[in-house]
Design a protein that fits this description.
This protein has 155 residues and is α/β, with parallel strands linked by helices. It has 6 helices and 5 strands. The longest helix is centred in the first third of the chain and has 11 residues.
Length: 155
């Protein structure tokens, strides 16, 4: 385990997508408002959601940005996310990849105003993910890492 990070094993979550969709709390409007305000997200901006799960960030960002690119290593999570966001007016792109794939996807992903990671950063090689995001985020953009209880503040 590098940096005391637990290696994500997609097999350990196989079949849990139904429970995530049913029991996972939605993203509070106040959290999205903080991200939008402090990172200056505009209606034409792109957002990258890493570990998107059942699409809760995409649902919460509706009307706040123009596109959300959603990455998740579990194809069943992505199916439920697509279903949950079927009425979305913004562009949604669903990619069956995990955070460890950012390095190889960099040139194909493009640049984003914001990257979000909600409830998943503890599964990632944090140092590597942040390095990979360095070239994917606009100079005046940022990375929002948060959980049910608060934002990660690097402290």
């Amino acid at each position: 385990m590098k940096n005391n990070i637990r290696k994500f094993d997609p097999e350990s979550y196989r079949g849990t997508y139904k429970y995530y969709a049913k029991y996972r709390p939605s993203i509070p409007k106040e959290v999205i408002d903080v991200i939008v305000k402090h990172l200056g997200v505009k209606p034409n901006d792109r957002v990258l959601d890493i570990g998107c799960g059942t699409g809760q960030i995409a649902l919460a960002m509706e009307g706040k940005c123009g596109e959300v690119v959603c990455l998740d290593p579990d194809p069943e999570m992505l199916k439920l996310a697509k279903k949950a966001t079927k009425d979305s007016k913004m562009k949604l792109i669903w990619l069956n990849y995990g955070a460890e794939d950012l390095g190889k996807l960099k040139k194909d992903l493009g640049i984003f105003k914001v990257a979000t990671i909600c409830r998943a950063f503890h599964w990632m090689d944090q140092e590597q993910v942040l390095k990979d995001l360095n070239n994917l985020i606009e100079e005046d953009g940022g990375v929002a890492i948060f959980s049910d209880r608060g934002f990660w503040t690097c402290q």
